[in-house]
Amino acid sequence: MNSVLSINSIRFLVLILTQVLICSQIIFFGYINPYIYILFIILYPVKNNRSLFIFLSFLLGLIVDLFLDSGGIHAASSVFIAYARPIVLKFSFGMIYQHQSIKFDSVDFGAKLSYITIMVAVHHIILFSLEIFSISKIILILQKSLFSSIFTIILCVLITIIFSRKSK
Fold first, then answer.
1. According to the model, what pLDDT value does residue 102 have?
2. What is the pLDDT of residue 33?
3. Radius of gyration of the chain (CA)
4. Where are the domains of the chain?
5. CB-hemisphere CA count at 13 Å for 17?
């Protein structure tokens, strides 16, 4: 089996299991919940098939929806950030993305942090907007999005630092 395919398959399964078994049980103050499964979308290789990537993002969100009984909101928000990912990559990495030579282990930390922050924030705003689905509760949507995003960003950055394979 191809090493990139095996790494991404293992990442897919481990992130789903971690999200469903551990992270879905963590709820601080009634509304702060980490969603680290989106690390699969964030770290997916840039050069791979875009249609397959969007389908895998949908499948990832759908599986999380099935386990959390959330009615498709994770699938919708996952597909949206997968579709918008090239725009965020171009904004965060600039010319590196133009040449499609991004290696997340070797890019500047600031660019990586801005990329993770934008992806997580957009995902959470869409997720909580669909969950609450009321414009009169915009403050609650923004509050849940902000605090869950901060917690998710911290966890995602820690996970990428711990599991990075930077060769010296």
1. 67
2. 86
3. 16
4. 3-162
5. 6
Burial class (CB in 10 A: 0-12, 13-18, 19+), 64: buried
Structure confidence at residue 167 (pLDDT): 46
Distance of alpha carbon 97 from alpha carbon 111, whole angstroms: 11
User: Tokens 């909101």 appear where?
Assistant: 73
Six-digit token string for 51: 């249609």
Q: How many residues would you count in the chain?
A: 168
The CATH number, out of the four listed (3.30.70, 1.20.1300, 2.60.40, 1.10.1760), of the domain defined by the range 3-162: 1.10.1760
Strand partners, 32: 28
pLDDT at 95: 66
Query: Which tokens is 122 given?
Result: 């957009």
Cβ-count burial 110-146 (b if 16+ within 10 Å, e if not): ebbeebbbbbbbbbbbbbbbbbeeeeeeeeebeebbe
The three-point CA angle 60-63-64 to 5° equals 85
| SS3 call for 168 | coil
The CA distance from 19 to 37, in Å, is: 6
Could you tell me which residues come within 8 angstroms of residue 80 by beta carbon, excluding any fewer than 6 positions away?
A: 122, 123, 126
